[in-house]
Amino acid sequence: MKFVFQFARIVAFCLLGEILAAVLPLPIPASVYGLLLMVAALKLGLLKLEQVRETGLFLTGIFPLLFVPAASGVMELGSQLAEVFIPVLIAIIPITALVMAVTGSVAQHFTARQEVEKS
Amino acid sequence: MSEFLQHCGSWGVFATLAAYALGVLINRKTKLALFNPLLMGSIFMIVFLRCFAIPYADYSSSAAPVNWLLAPATVSLAIPLYEKWDLLEKNVGAILAAILAGVITSLGSVLVIAWVLNMQRANAVTLLPKSVTTAIGMDIAETLGGTAALAGAVIILTGIAGSLLAETVCKVCHITHPIAKGLALGTSAHAVGTSKALEMGEVEGAISGLAIAVAGVLTAVLAPVAANFLP
């Protein structure tokens, strides 16, 4: 029964997120609202970690599997993708590596500096 | 047969699990990063549908429950985030600076290729949100006059590429701090990258999950500005 309750609580946050996304005019999707609401509820003590933890970690553990149906949708876009093949390829591989390198390096620089200041 | 597949609610879910499981097995046997379970699972799925001439729409409606679970899974990223809250508070400046730098790099590089390759505006705006989560990115692309479905495909392919490149990029650029790794993955490769970050460690996963949300919102705000600079 524990898992039923945990899952119900998580889905309740999804629902709250969907309601917020429908009401507020911001470009934020429902699941991100749900995430922020759950963090807030945990911080405020309205929700205890053990009331969602096991089911939640199960769900985050199977994340890549959940993308299979959406990723298979690429098959529908054959001709459209072929048309923009070169730019898409550049966007997907080198630009992603560049974004990763820039974000990581900036973070590495700041966190390293902070640790030096502390010591 | 096709009538059965249209009304049967389990085959899509089962086929998804089977294709993914096969991907996991191959990944374990070969230990090659390129044989990523999501990439392999999706390829098997596409091959299967093509071989039996099953329309994608039939599969996607039968596998809808799997797709729906993305919502509670995204919400559950709150759990690792909450567990690592202290770390987040201590590094809030670094986190925001890094994500902002990543988002600007992403939008800026798309602008550069759009100019250099003389891309059509509709295609260029479709590529702008490529590093953010599908839920936000597809919406941005459509609002700016791009194609949502194409944006979705580019976003997922970006995520897969990001997971595959992660180890190499971190090594080459000397990104060693768990927070820096998490930010790099979440900002460049959204939720697919986050699943890679979760494999690397708890801190990486938690921070990557946060980066999805922050990068998504920043991109939603900055992409319309970037679109103004398109040829």
Structure description:
The complex is a heterodimer of chains A (119) and B (231). By secondary structure, chain A is mostly helical. Chain A is 80% helix and 0% strand. Chain A has 2 domains: 1-66, no CATH class; 72-119. In chain A, helix 1 (2-23) packs across helix 2 (30-44) and helix 1 crosses helix 3 (53-61). With 231 residues, chain B is mainly α. Chain B has 2 domains: 2-68, no CATH class; 78-227, no CATH class. Helices cover 81% and strands 0% of the residues of chain B. Chain B starts with a helix and ends with a helix. The chains are: A mainly alpha (119), B mainly alpha (231).
Which keywords apply here?
heterodimer, A: 119 residues, mainly alpha, 7 helices, B: 231 residues, 2 domains, 81% helix, globular
Major sheet description of chain A: none
Largest interface: A-B, 73 and 115 residues
Count of all domains of chain A? 2
Strand content of chain A: under 5%
- Residue runs with pLDDT of under 50 for 5 or more positions of chain B: none
Q: Write the H/E string of chain A, N to C.
A: HHHHHHH
User: Mind telling me the C-alpha Rg of chain A?
Assistant: 20 Å
Amount of helix of chain B: over 70%
Mean pLDDT of chain A: 90
**Fraction in helix of chain A:** over 70%
Query: Please, how many domains of chain B?
Result: 2
List the total number of helices of chain B: 14
Number of distinct beta strands of chain A: 0
Give the SSE string of chain B: HHHHHHHHHHHHHH
- Molecular shape of chain A: extended
Q: Describe the biggest sheet of chain B?
A: none
Q: TL;DR of this structure?
A:
Chain A has 119 residues and is mainly alpha-helical. Chain A is built from 7 helices and no strands.
Question: Helices and strands in order, then pairings?
Answer:
The complex is a heterodimer of chains A (119) and B (231).
Chain A: H1 2-23, H2 30-44, H3 53-61, H4 63-66, H5 68-72, H6 78-83, H7 85-118
Helix pairs in contact in A: 1-2, 1-3
Chain B: H1 2-7, H2 11-30, H3 37-51, H4 56-62, H5 64-68, H6 70-76, H7 78-83, H8 85-90, H9 92-116, H10 121-127, H11 134-143, H12 148-172, H13 178-200, H14 202-227
Helix pairs in contact in B: 2-3, 9-13, 9-14, 11-12, 12-13, 13-14
